[in-house]
Amino acid sequence: MNVLLLMNYLTKKTMKNLKPFLLATTTLLLASCGSSVAPIDATLLKSSNSLTLKTEKVDNVQLKVWSATDLATDTIPGMSVDKAYAELIPNLKGINVIVAVIDSGIDIEHEDLKNVIWINRGEIPNNGIDDDKNGFIDDVHGWNFLGDIVGENLEFTRIVRRYDGKFNGKDVAEVSEVDMETFVLYQKAKAEQNKNYDETEANRDRYTQMLKQVTDANNQISKKLGKEDYTAEELAAIIDPDDDEQKNIAVLTQMLSYGGSIPEFMVRLNGGIDYYDGRMKNHFNMDTDFRGVLNDNPYDITDTSYGNNDVDGPNPKKEDALHGTHVAGIIAAERGNGIGMDGVAQNVEIMVVRAVPDGDEYDKDVALAIRYAVDNGAKVINTSFGKGYSQNPEWVWDAIKYAGKKDVLIVNAAGNDGVDLDITTSYPNDQNGTGAEMSDNFITIGALNYKYGEEMVATFSNYGATSVDLFSPGVKIWSTIPLDTYEYLQGTSMASPNVAGVAAMIRSYYPKLSAKQVKQVLMDSGLHTSTPVIVGGEESNIQPFDAISKSGNTANLYNALIMASKM
Prior knowledge:
13 strands, alpha/beta, 11% strand, two-stranded antiparallel ribbon, single chain, disordered N terminus
């Protein structure tokens, strides 16, 4: 589910959504086309618990590129991307790698992405024929499994809708043994539905009340001051305010304490109201059949003839492709073109697979999207989405294993609920409910903040000693959004493509390494630290950083290339 729009509006709101690598002695070196012959002669970077922390504020210039910074040089926990490009990559020769982005759609005409979008050479554009016989007509840049769908239910709402007619009003004694498991799921989903609906309605009403209060206060005070934009000092300087003015001054002073101007704060409040209204309209809607426009049964995995090739989605302004466009830019925005920003990876083609609506993705769409990406040549797949309920997780697990057999690495966002995934299940995952991995080609990524030390884990990031593999930058990430523009977004949705970019670079320069080996390089090559960190945004929850993921590391491109060269 894409919840990042709310974060963008409410910048002050906190979201609640390694072992050392031992190099084996070997006499074989990679010596193939597109790979470096000799191991890179460079020293691996190391982290240190005693590293001097950055005390001064990260400025705007640094903030826009902090994912690319180097911890030792900049005291910011980036991935040493700039260092790798300056010192290592000029001596390497790479091949092109296809990275599939399964997401909400991508603006394929964006100035910083249009030259890195995958083109299906076997397809003649817009002739209405499946030229390459892959089962998808005119899939020149990928496939849209959602058709014209934008809004969707959350999974627990779907469960309630699907079984309400059968179970509503019944107790355990009235349910057969055959139906008991489904009944328990229904009850759990219904409780979740009611809880979330009530919370969302209350938040919408609270923001609506705040907006009215601020609007009324602003109307009076701005008229008195003769301007819309004013400071707290100017409010305090108002002479002999009457009772109403004193109340309004107090309200506006409090709002200004949150940062920005009153007009900016009102925009954020409006954005919050729109977000909560959208959730009421889509996520918890018990009446609208969003799937109806696709003419598809989402609970029949054998029915695959649906969707279209409109990979940026149905909205002419491409607003619904914001999330996917941002993710794509992090991975592969064209480097060195003098505009916008530089993605982590070069030698990359972005395959667009639209399967994530404003709501929860269907298991069927995710499973078929993974298979589409694998069958059409992707070597890395990024999955920046997730949900807490799944009705057909086995379809996705089968697709993950299929990708593994075809040597495709899947890079997955851990999620933004600030919870321990060893305790709370999130989908997709590769653990099949057992805690043990079913495949060695799936890597789950938590999000880092740009503040090294106690606050280096994003307050919203999920974590888990066995369920999360690695951490990478995910707070205030500058990247592409539709219509040739750029914006900060944050979430594990941003951390995952940072690692996908590093994976793509490994697969470009060392293409003989398997997906399993690339995953191991990603985990083992990171910077290791045991410094105590705040997890889940709870200041009372302090854990050693190396105890909240399987590797205990932060992703690092410089080290990954060195280590890959020696395998």
